[in-house]
Amino acid sequence: MEKILYKSTRSKDGAIEASQAILKGLADDGGLFVPLSIPKLDKSLEELSKMSYQQVAYEVMKLFFTDFTEEELKNCIDRAYDTKFDTEEIAPLAKVDGAYHLELFHGPTIAFKDMALQILPHLLTTSAKKNGVENEIVILTATSGDTGKAAMAGFADVEGTRIIVFYPDGGVSPIQEKQMVTQKGANTNVVAIEGNFDQAQTGVKNIFNNKELAKEMDAKGFQFSSANSINIGRLVPQVAYYVYSYAKLLAEGKISDGEKINVVVPTGNFGNILAAFYAKNMGTPIDKLICASNENKVLFDFFSTGEYDKNREFILTTSPSMDILISSNLERLIYNIAGNDAETNSAMMADLSSKGKYTITDDMKAKLSDFVGDFATEEETAATIKKHFDNTGYIMDTHTAVARCVYDKYVASTGDDKVTVIASTASPFKFTRAVMNSIDSNYDKLGDFELVDELSKIGNVTVPNAIEEIRNAEVLHDNKCAADGMEDIVKKFLGI
Ligand SMILES: *Cc1c(COP(=O)(O)O)cnc(C)c1O
């Protein structure tokens, strides 16, 4: 098997092992770790079609994490994808009005972040052992809602780790907030910051880049790592479900071997769709990668014009996990289409940080022809939920509805009838009010948990465990800070 090393998107030198990249999270120069090349699948699609989710995950991850032994990797996979998921299939496909919804929300926090965050703690602690790290690992995470809970659920009580989560006060759904502030585990902390998601994310990045603080931490036996989707240990596990969905469609005779499919992804930080891009580059027969945005349509504008411009109003929508103006993982794509050229990428990222925008070259733009960008307005998103509920009885969440709406528009305008997989990123029970209001505005009179029960009734689906758990759970975290007070609160929690 070819050995895969990792380097930063912002420098030419210093390739490191996968376990080291996972441990570091972000490179010292502020860049993101990328594999020197994207490995090719070494099993045929036919062979993959006979495998379980865990087996496919192994076949994908072994090609990227080449310094892990078979036993180490299988151990991580088995501990992650077990009965914490409410279906043995882990990521089932549901056919809804002619497209396949890849349900990535059957994990403990009912959103797709579980797919990677259930395994990341095990990848991290294994990486620490492999590299003789004795410091306690401190995870800092900025969340627009789902990452925070999913990260805490993954790390809670994992020995040798602590986790601190920052979320924008008022920028997440009431159920998301309740899920976070009721999190158990002595090693977990949650803080609401007075600012939006981008400020939270920038704050976390600044703490990571603070060399002085890193020294102080090391002296006290701590080191930072990241659970955000910039960590390569988050990205790679996500590649697995795109390969798996293809294998599953093949196993069920919905496609023939080698037939190309389209993939639609509701996008925020660009991690999920980048995983689909990696799956395609590994040899999964994927044609179009359809990038769906909500009204924060910075990516749609980027794909249309080649200019990425974050200088615009930040809009709070009913799909808050996609309310993002700086899609961090896009940097990995920029690096790739620049021909793996760190200098070009660095110049563009410098423009992004000084002017809030950059423009790619025509050559780079030409390499984006597999991507299709579009967006859905709030009205369109709500209408999409209602339309497909009326047609089929299936209820999708607001994020998935953004993708479904973009897909429906794509088919109407192109007539492209390829078999299509839509990444379904959250359970409707996580965004109950917005989902139910889309079906009938009279539901708005109901309380949060009355809505949950009503959704269960009209959708004919049982209430997921993740929701039952928080009905009467005790609030365990009540912390707030200013956007510029994040470092102080981290120090306080660590007692340094
Ligand atoms: C995080 C998230 C997204 C966006 O995924 P990215 O990888 O950040 O693009 C979409 N939907 C839901 C429900 C999410 O939690």
Could you characterize the architecture of this molecule?
The chain is globular. It starts with 5 loop residues before the first strand and ends with a helix. Strands 3-4-14-9-10-13 form a six-stranded mixed β-sheet. Strands 8-5-6-7-15 form a five-stranded parallel β-sheet, sandwiched between helices. A two-stranded antiparallel sheet has the order 1-2. The chain has 22 helices and 15 strands. Helix content is 45%, strand content 15%. The longest helix is centred in the middle third of the chain and has 20 residues, at 232-251. The protein is an alpha/beta fold and 496 residues long. It has helices spanning 18-24, 45-48, 53-64, 70-80, 114-117, 120-130, 146-155, 174-181, 197-208, 211-219, 232-251, 271-282, 298-305, 330-337, 342-355, 362-366, 378-392, 398-414, 432-439, 448-459, 465-470, 486-494; strands at residues 6-8, 33-35, 93-96, 99-103, 136-142, 161-168, 188-194, 222-226, 261-266, 286-293, 307-309, 357-359, 371-375, 420-424, 480-482. Bound molecules: pyridoxal-5'-phosphate. Residues 111-113, 146, 229, 266-272, 321-322, 399, 425-426 line the site of pyridoxal-5'-phosphate. Pyridoxal-5'-phosphate (PLP) binds next to helix 12.
Q: Keywords for this structure?
A:
single chain; 496 residues; 15 strands
